[in-house]
């Protein structure tokens, strides 16, 4: 998008907002848009990534796990992307989830979560514990959200597609941490996406502001006393940013602004100090607004109407002898994997208490979930697999949670690991859904966890000298870049 093509009304507002910085802002449209990846810290930390990375990008200064990439890097076509090692994300959009102080065991809500760029970071911070409740009112976008959360190997999730007003009525003061990355006029995306400019002309800040006001109030209703909420947008309009926050503070005396420390290149809020603004002429990013708020009080003072508790058991899990053995082995591997992630291994018996079966599908529910009666949800917990005539077939989401190092050498034919080098051509063949031929010495039968450099990709079924591919069709290798709706 060239600056000459920007709406005159928008330019007038930006000149008034930026003053003497306005010419520098216009010049930023002559520069390419910034691109980045954010590491899945449940898989790999920045130090290990520096040794493994096939890209040469510099760190993103405002996150501990973000890196710049170029178009030439093609991160959406690297096996590490399919192993869930990183999420492709615009660098300034990394700030909101980085700033929300999520801790293991928290109940976390991402209210406008699709396609999952921020949810995946919030879930990684939970380290396999607590609850990540990710919602998007659009069902089609919520499906992309679910895929990205499963690709990241996040076990304790609930993905819904519901009106936030209904969620607020169902779960008052339930969550410890909440992110509201609100739909907005998208002024921070003009350099990257011309469709956002057309949307601004037909809608603009005045159209989005009432929506944002409702969302931030509904989120405040769901935040427990002592809890922290981040409100963010990818737009520059004060009406959508500082004014939305100020209105909430004026109406809700129990809410207080938590000042965000500035870092080099960042700007303070306009008329509301303590907020954070990112501009493309000040740093390598497209632009974002972030405000952090806290509800006064202490944990444990939640409204009596909030609903938490255990869900129903569901159907009986009926398996034959071999399938029961496989299921037992998988539960032990899962317990070890969760223990490596959280630092405390759950017992297999504790996991069994959280199993839920319905219509042949078996799930591991989060440690604690609210009453979801009447809520439209796509997934609650981790899909372990499906039972079919006494057999058990493990799922793709389960594969992404497992740590290959937790697969015992003595698992016999029930579960084995095939670990391929990133440069092995069979990695791409597997991701395309093709049958995999084994090298001599790799003869295998039973269920095979296919990995790349020690990171899981998915399942295959061993058949002697070849593997029957069980990789999900909807996840397969794309000849072009990753689909836009997935990032």
Automatic annotation (TrEMBL):
One of its GO terms (biological process) is RNA methylation. GO terms for molecular function: RNA binding; RNA methyltransferase activity. Residues 25-296 form the SAM-dependent MTase RsmB/NOP-type domain. S-adenosyl-L-methionine binds at residues 112-118, 136, 163, 181. The active site is at residue 234. Keywords: Cytoplasm, Methyltransferase, RNA-binding, S-adenosyl-L-methionine, Transferase. Pfam families: Methyltr_RsmB-F, Methyltr_RsmF_N, Methyltranf_PUA, RsmF_methylt_CI. Coiled coil: none annotated. Residues 295-315 are annotated as: Disordered. It comes from the Bacteria. SUPFAM superfamilies: S-adenosyl-L-methionine-dependent methyltransferases. Belongs to the class I-like SAM-binding methyltransferase superfamily. RsmB/NOP family. PANTHER family: 28S RRNA (CYTOSINE(4447)-C(5))-METHYLTRANSFERASE-RELATED (PTHR22807:SF30), NOP2 YEAST -RELATED NOL1/NOP2/FMU SUN DOMAIN-CONTAINING (PTHR22807). This is RsmB/NOP family class I SAM-dependent RNA methyltransferase.
